[in-house]
Structures are given as C-alpha cells and as structure tokens.
Amino acid sequence: MYGINGSDFPPVKEDTFCKYVLYYEINNSSVRIWDLIILIPNALFLLFLVIRFNKAQLKLRATSSPIFLTFYMLVWGNVIISLVRCAVSMTVNAAMPLGGLVDKILWVTVRFFLLATEMSVVIFGLAFGHLDSRSSIRYVLLATSLVSLVFTITQGTLEIVNPDDMFHIDIKDYDLFGHGGMLFWFISSLVFALIYFLILLLPWIPLRDYLALPSKLSFYLYVLLLALLDTSQAVGAGLLTWGSMQSGLCVVDVTTWLYFSLYTPLVYHTFLSEFFSVSQPSIMFSYKAQMDEPMDDDQVSLPHQQSFSSLKTDSDYIYQSNSVYDSTLFEAGGTTPMNPVYSASLQSPDSIASNHSDGIPVFLNAPST
Q1: I need a surface site. Which of 28, 180, 275, 296 has the fewest CB within 10 A?
Q2: Same domain, yes or no, for 245 and 360?
Q3: From residue 83, how far is each of 78, 87, 155, 273 by CA, in Å?
Q4: 70 and 210 both lie in a single domain
Q5: How far is Cα 4 from Cα 12, in angstroms, rounded to an integer?
Q6: Which residues of 219-243 are buried (b: 16+ CB within 10 A; e: fewer)?
Q7: Contact 194, 109 (CB under 8 A)
Q8: For the segment 339-360, what is each residue's pLDDT rounded down to a tens digit?
Q9: How far is it, in rounded angstroms, from Cα 130 to Cα 315?
C-alpha cells in the first residue's frame, strides 16, 4: 500500500511512535493510550468545574446577563461530550465495523461542539458584543451551530466514505479517525488560520471604526493561539499529504491533542476565570435600575444611563478592558449602592449560610436603591 489516497509516498510504519500511540491498547484491552491521554486532562478540568460549581452558581445568579451563563454552559457541554467520547471509545471494539463507526461519529460530534464554541466566542466578540441579550446570543449560537454542522457532516462523510490510508492499521485491519482526510484537514486548518490572523489585524485597519472590537489583550492572545494551532495543523497535514510523512504525523498528533484536551480550559481561562475569581466589587454586574415600565423577557437590565454613561453591558466585561468601567463609582461613599445579590456572590456558600439571622440572610439588609 502506498501513501495517502494513492500518493507516491510510502505510509508511516505502524511501529513508528507517532502512529503507534494512536492505536496502542493497554494490556491488549480496548483502552487505547490515545484516548487515555485525552481523557485525563478533560477529567481533571471537569473535577475543577465541580469543585468550583457552588461559587460559580452564586456568581451566575448575581448577574442579569445571559452571556456568562452561555459561556459556562458551552464549557460544561464541551468537557462532558469529550469525556463521553473517550469513555465510549474505550469500551467499543474499533476493529469491528460498528465499533469503528461509533468511534468516528463521536469524534466528529466532539468537533461539532468545539467548533461551534470556537466560532461563537469570536463572532460574539466582534459583531454582537454590544448586544447582551438572549435573542442575540440565540442568533449567534444558531448561526455557528449551522456552520459547524455543515463542517462536521462534510468531515464525517469523508471519514466514512473515503478514509485516509494514513490512518489504516494493517495489523488490526481497521481505520482510525483521520479528520476527514489530510487534504480536507489541510484546507480547513489553513482557512481558519487565515481568518484568525485577519482578526488580529482588525485593530489596525479602517474597518475597526465599524466594529465593536474587543480591547482586552487576553482576547487577542486567545485568537493568536488558535491561529498558531491551525497553522501548525495545516503544516502537519500538508507534510503528510506532500512531504515528510513521519514528522507530519507527529505534528498532527500534537496539535490534535492540544485542541481536544486544552481548548475548553483555554476558553474558561480567557473569558470566565476573571469573572468567577473576582474578590472585590470593582464592577456592578446586575444592578437593576428602577423603571416605571416593565422590561421584556428578552431584555437585559442595564445600569442607570444617567449615572453610568460609561458602563456598558456585561459582555463588555468579557471582551473589553477594565478601564471602560469607572470603578470609583462603587467605592465606599458612592452615590449608588452595589447590588446586594452580587455582594453575596463574593462570599463563599458557607459564609452566607453562617450569616443568617432569624432565617433572613444578612445581605438582604444591604442598602436599597
């Protein structure tokens, strides 16, 4: 057998480490080391989310913005589906036709969730960051889900109908997941890399005047990391298709592990960690101004415009620098009190429970608006 899809390059030998690690089974069981090294970081991150769940729940209840909850749910969904894929792949026999099919379907399913999250984060920051409402979030999620669905259906179809010879294991006579083939992987990775590099250039081109561009450095570092990752994937896939087979496979292995193991923690660290770890009330997340008219269900409450003309929606806290907020408005002696619910969210669950007086939480005695 020769090369990838009939190319003149000989395939990577199956005892080569970068290919061996993909199919090696521990003690001749169905537990492959490749699934195990992806499962471990996802399991550790899930444990982290579980430990921080109570504090996160309090913070989410204290903000009226749906953006934080949306990001948090995306993170949970990604890590859970990744763990499910690893667990199922370890229990099915990939050498059997049904087992191999299930394994590939699970891979493209995980890719669907990760890609939808990947696009949602960027699109919301560039086009909808100033519309912090449930409807705008639904539109973004719907659009990114449709694009991601088209991508994963294409990838899954290529994976099943035309599996890449590079990922065929002769000694076990089955095909590993090959990302839809290296040509597809090369083209798609190159397109995503170009898009991310273009985003990095937006602050320096005239188009920036028509976009609510994020100002936080962490957002651009996030985009830069994805641009470098996609570039590396394109290089690895290109080497596998037209050049050095062994080095190309090693690059593909490393970038695949990074994406499926560390992308979700990267999203959490970049867009949620600051919100969940804040210990001082520098921003009032969910202050509800008193209004004569009731708000629509889809409308997110905003701070009083006369008092907080510089304060924007909660999504700006994710994408914009802290300098866009005037934290002096919330210092002691300010004219406007902090939301008591958010104040309570800064405490641990145990401290809130211990501060009850006659069954009434102490934070209810905070100054009212």
Answers
A1: 28
A2: no
A3: 9, 6, 21, 22
A4: yes
A5: 10
A6: bbebbebbbebbbbbbbbbbbbbbe
A7: no
A8: 454 445 445 445 544 454 444 4
A9: 7
Structure tokens at 317: 């806290």
* pLDDT tens sequence across 193-252: 999 999 999 888 887 776 667 888 889 999 999 999 999 999 999 998 887 677 889 999
Give the E-state strand segments of 157-228 in sequence order.
168-169, 174-175
Structure tokens at 61: 């209840």
pTM for the complete prediction?
Answer: 0.74
Say whether both 72 and 195 belong to one domain.
Answer: yes
Number of domains in the chain: 2
- Percent of the chain at pLDDT > 90 equals 38
Q: 303 in a domain, yes or no?
A: no
Find residue 110's DSSP bridge partners: none
Whole-number pLDDT of residue 206: 82
- pLDDT digits 0-9 by tens, 16-63: 788 888 888 888 777 889 999 999 999 999 999 999 999 899 888 887
Decide if 286 is inside a domain: no
Rg (CA), the chain: 24
Do 338 and 257 reside in the same domain of the chain?
Answer: no
Task: Tell me: do 224 and 77 sit in the same domain.
Answer: yes
Domain assignment present for residue 1? The answer is: no
The answer on 229 and 85 residing in a single domain is: yes
Amino acid present at 79: V
